[in-house]
Each structure stands twice: as structure tokens, then as C-alpha cells.
Fold:
Amino acid sequence: MSGGEALDLALGLLRAPARRSALAARPLPTGMTTLLEVAGGSESAAHAAAASTGASPAELLEASRFFVQQILFTEDASAYRVLGAGPDAPQSTLQAHHRHLQRWLHPDRDGGEAWDSAFSARVNEAWNKLRTPAARRAYDQARPEPAQASAPAATSGSDWHPPAA
Structure:
């Protein structure tokens, strides 16, 4: 597959959901913006991803949404992770990711599921913590430093790659 690491991992997670904990322990993969565009319902992103991965747009939609639910929305996820980005992400990326997620999750969207509004509120909460440089600085200062000693243990087994299509 060649649709970007995030889409490849999302397809692999859909096919082997038992790998959730290994993926959740990893840093976010490259290609999160494309994954969130697909999850947000962008037909053009889904068709472009389908052309590069060989998966159908419907499978990519399902896989990208499952990935977001299982990997980004974990109970202890930081505001950055909920928005599908790292702490070094530019403000424009955070804003774009918020927009993609809300296209899918906002309760006013047609065909939304009941749980979508809970995730929508969580995405908005994360965005509000990071939406301005001052809010972002305050959030970053309040966050505990990641434990460096536990990093190797947290990533062990995370060299898992999705099965070939």
C-alpha cells in the first residue's frame, strides 16, 4: 500500500483490531491530515486514497473513522492527540484537523450517530485548549513532562505494520 502511513495503519487496524494497544502507544503516523479528510467525509480525499491504497472509498472511510475512535480518542489522550497532531504542529494544522473532525462529528450533521456529539464535544474541548497561542502555552505549561524512561517500554511491539492487502 502507498496511501500514507496513517491510512495504511488504519486499514491494518480495521483488519486486526487486537493491535489497538500497540498502535495507541506509538506516536501518531505521518499522513494524519489525509486520514482526517477521509474521516471527515471528503469524497475527493477518499477517491485519491483509494487510488493509492487499492482499498475502496467505503473501506477507507470505515478504517479512518475506526482509527480516530480507537487511537485518537483514548481516555488519556492529550488535546494534541485528540486533534490528530503532535505538540510541534503548526496552528493551521490544528485548525484544519478540528474542521475535518467536526465535519464528521458535529451533532447538526445529517446522519450522525448518538455518540458523535460526545466526540464532537471532546474535539471542541481540545481545540479550545490549543486555539490561541496564549491558550496553547498555558496548556503546554500545565501538561506533565512525558516520562523519558518509559518511552522504550511504551513503544515495544509498536513496530507492527498492517497486513498486506
About this structure: The two ends are 7 Å apart (CA to CA). Residues 10 and 63 are 5 Å apart (CA to CA). Confidence is low (pLDDT under 50) at residues 147-165. Residues 57-72 form the longest helix (16 residues).
